[in-house]
Design a protein that fits this description.
Order of helices and strands: EEEHEEHEHHHHEHEHEEHH
CATH architecture of one domain: 3-Layer(aba) Sandwich
Helix content: 25-40%
Strand order of the largest sheet: 6-7-8-3-9-10
Distance between the termini: 40 Å
GO molecular function, one term: ATP hydrolysis activity
Largest sheet: 6 strands, mixed
Number of helices: 10
Low-confidence stretches: 1-5
Structural class: alpha/beta
CATH class of one domain: Alpha Beta
Protein name: Leucine/isoleucine/valine transporter subunit ATP-binding component of ABC superfamily
Keywords: Amino-acid transport, ATP-binding, Nucleotide-binding, Transport
Family: Belongs to the ABC transporter superfamily.
Radius of gyration: 17 Å
Organism: Methylocella tundrae
Number of strands: 10
Length: about 240
């Protein structure tokens, strides 16, 4: 797959998304460059998940344009977008509860084919040793943290150029959250994996991210380097006071 030259890996321009007549994204501009960790923080209902789902074509952007690796994906089908090297670990994990850990990972690998399966399986088992121990266990019997690990591992099995994570810390114990964020950081540092992270846990997300954005009511209201945003009093007041 050819890269997008020096341009961003993913770019959104003037993207508007609606649910019926209700506007959910109000003209979003966003760039994600190869090798970056970008985070989007915001309150519940701000439009963060809609943004991520719009990139994947469900719901579809009604206005504006989305480009990935130099291609216009605005009107593409979700499965065709995934084939270009985008993978998503959705909010609420959405693993297949009746299937084993191994079978969940097989489904993740469908896009990249059988050729790399053994190597990719070994890779995710090194990243998440717990999943190796639980390989034959049904997904639904795993703890919340293990299910989140499985959701990320399943996304990694498709060998993505851009990994999109929606609320990976949701409902997890602080120690597990720390582990998950360490994994994201390591994947970025050692493999150069590009990551787009949507998170309510502003502290962890902004500490990790190269750049961050704040979304309020379907619009990006603030952008900057992760740690710079973390230091801003209005961010601390809105997202960190009494938080994690």
């Amino acid at each position: 797959m050819s890269g997008a030259g020096s341009g961003p890996l993913l770019s959104m321009r003037g993207v508007k998304t609606y649910y019926g007549n209700i506007i959910a994204l109000k003209g979003v501009d966003l760039d994600i460059h190869e090798g970056e960790i970008i985070t989007m923080i915001g309150a519940n209902g701000a439009g963060k998940t809609t943004l991520m789902m719009t990139i994947f074509g469900n719901p579809r952007a009604r206005e504006g344009a989305i480009h990935f690796a130099g291609r216009d994906i605005t009107a593409m089908q979700t499965h065709d977008i995934a084939r270009l090297g985008l993978a998503q670990s959705p909010e609420g994990r959405r693993i297949f509860p009746r299937m084993s850990v191994y079978e969940n990972l097989q489904i993740g690998a469908q896009l990249s084919g059988d050729r790399h399966f053994a190597a990719d399986l070994e890779r995710v088992f090194v990243i998440f040793p717990r999943l190796k121990e639980r390989a034959n266990q049904r997904g639904g019997t795993l703890s919340g943290g293990e299910q989140q690990m499985l959701a990320i591992a399943r996304a990694l099995m498709s060998r993505p150029r851009l990994l999109m994570l929606d609320e990976p810390s949701l409902g997890l114990a602080p120690l597990i959250v720390k582990q998950i964020f360490e994994v994201i950081k390591d994947l970025n540092r050692t493999e150069g994996l590009t990551v787009f992270l949507v998170e309510q846990n502003a502290f962890h997300a902004l500490t990790l991210a190269h750049r961050g954005h704040v979304m309020v009511n379907g619009a990006i209201t603030l952008s900057g380097k992760g740690r710079e945003l973390l230091a801003r009093p209005e961010i601390r007041a809105a997202y960190l006071e009494g938080g994690h």
